[in-house]
Q: What sequence folds into this?
């Protein structure tokens, strides 16, 4: 299992591929479904013993239904804090599941498209993530996994309310749909607020890179649905399909505007970012993300051609604290990480010019 | 004459060579002597006609005494504002002489070691500049030039006061001795003020790169004597010889301290500067100087070996506004200069890694 996680850190998961529709702006599309068993109280109300039973049953059933070839189940209690953080950084588990105590785990496929958390706020959180703007495909896959699990598990469901969940905001479909976007031009032209306001009117919400309460880093934002009650899965997908194309249009117009108004200044910003990344000897995760965001914009504007989105995504994630430590095979304090990170980035970016 | 100035911009003059004693800190040593003819009023009191006569006599005599092979005399009225600024940027004339009106000029040798201004604040300002810490040699040369000129000109001299000058601070020897220093470590450790105060007690003064009233750019500072009255040339040289070794010691200790306390941070600062200079598409003269200062420190600390001081000095001066315009053969506004400057720096720094 330890070996698996070593490989994981160095590997390119699904959303890191950098492909998919509208990939100049859309990093990934993600759906998660909240599901609970009828026969047990919600996780927060369950005893340690009940949580232990839940974990045993759920992990066994998940592996039995064979969600996809090569899927593995990890008991989080058997992992070190760095290994748990590694899974958070890859969006395979939530920060909450990582920080929780007691029996809990996650099953995920080698391509990292599917991950299923056990004993998060809900007994099961089924997540499917695809790179690019791929709502239909993401929905098709998560639906398949949900159906497979429904054959072997009895989910709490009310004909009036729909799926019952620990938090009322998830009752109904139990679905949260999130699209992760890279919006550097809207940020730099200070038009992001308009988007946030427009999106809010449709009961959608804009969040940072790692979900609720996290800061947006490197101009990456997630747009997610806020409530599920009284809305079908189709309604939620439809509201996203109403909004995302408009956001994409705003961002593209802002990028064109930047190039038209002051191409040199944009080129300068992008290439200075390349210069610093290629030469720094000490760099924080936050600055790395900020600079890679500029480079990513440069690639998508056609200004930089000697690096691809996949490489940028890999550097982005592999310079996060847990990845850095896992790949170096040892614990590193914050100062050491800043040095090791700079060395790693320099090596990966050496050819960019 | 125009052709001469084109060559000048692209050429490496004496103080740009980057050699001489203590050249890790001392950029150049400079002495200028103020001299006036007995037979005319000081420049500021002379009529336009008298200034014309002075210019005719002085330029003729300067060329006649043959100060050095290949010396040329330029009448500043025949130069464009950019050409005059070019001479200021190279320290061949003062900003005051450039900005003045009426008949005035400068003679200088091809190696730019000797320059003689005509109709500055004094009728003659004889300047000798050497790279590195070379007080004795500089004094020897300026003395020779002064002697040659004294054979063919009658200088205003009082046996009681010494040489008479337009400004009382220059009366006596008429000598100003300036040593240009690169003090990045004292600046970054905030110990420069101590040096300024210590120097002031010895009647020396710390000034910016282009003399009185100018800002220090890129951590370059000049230490000069303040007054001349009642002091012999030897006294002035001696007071500089008392002070400079101590300043050099402070700066070297500060550099060692930076490396000992946080080598990585210093390396980071130096290499980021390289990265930005290698990649920027838009850069001001001030930022260029600031970043080149970091690189220069890196070279002198042994952190950067793929560029030499001569190249750094050349980039420093050739990216100044007049040099940039002269080398491009046309007037450039400030925005255009920032682009052309970035292109120039990028090309010159491409191999630094």
A:
């Amino acid at each position: 299992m330890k070996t698996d996680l070593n490989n994981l850190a160095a590997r390119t998961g699904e959303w890191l591929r950098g492909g998919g529709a509208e990939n100049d702006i859309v990093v990934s599309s993600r759906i998660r479904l909240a599901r609970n068993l009828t026969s047990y109280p919600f996780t927060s109300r369950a005893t340690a013993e009940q949580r232990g039973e839940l974990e045993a049953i759920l992990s066994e059933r998940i592996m039995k239904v064979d969600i996809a070839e090569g899927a593995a189940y990890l008991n989080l209690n058997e992992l070190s804090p760095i290994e748990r953080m590694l899974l958070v950084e890859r969006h395979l588990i939530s920060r909450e599941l990582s920080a929780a105590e007691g029996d809990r785990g996650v099953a995920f496929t080698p391509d990292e498209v599917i991950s299923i958390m056990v004993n998060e706020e809900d007994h099961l959180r089924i997540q499917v993530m695809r790179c690019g703007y791929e709502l239909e495909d993401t929905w098709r896959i998560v639906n398949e996994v949900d159906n497979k699990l429904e054959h072997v598990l009895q989910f709490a469901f009310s004909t009036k309310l729909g799926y019952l969940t620990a938090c009322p905001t998830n009752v109904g479909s139990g679905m949260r749909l999130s699209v992760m976007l890279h919006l550097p031009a809207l940020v730099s032209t200070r038009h992001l607020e308009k988007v946030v306001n427009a999106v809010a009117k449709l009961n959608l919400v804009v969040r940072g890179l790692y979900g609720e309460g996290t800061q947006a880093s490197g101009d990456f934002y997630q747009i997610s649905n806020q409530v599920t009650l009284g809305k079908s899965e189709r309604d939620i997908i439809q509201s996203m399909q109403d909004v995302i194309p408009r956001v994409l249009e705003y961002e593209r117009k802002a990028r064109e505007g930047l190039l038209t108004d002051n191409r040199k200044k944009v080129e300068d910003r992008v290439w200075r970012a390349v210069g610093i990344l290629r030469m720094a000897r000490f760099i924080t995760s936050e600055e790395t993300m900020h600079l890679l965001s500029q480079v990513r914009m440069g690639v998508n504007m056609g200004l930089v051609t000697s690096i691809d989105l996949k490489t940028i995504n890999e550097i982005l994630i592999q310079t996060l604290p847990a990845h850095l430590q896992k790949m170096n095979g040892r614990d590193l304090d914050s100062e050491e990480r800043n040095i090791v990170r700079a060395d790693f980035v320099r090596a990966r970016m050496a050819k960019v010019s």
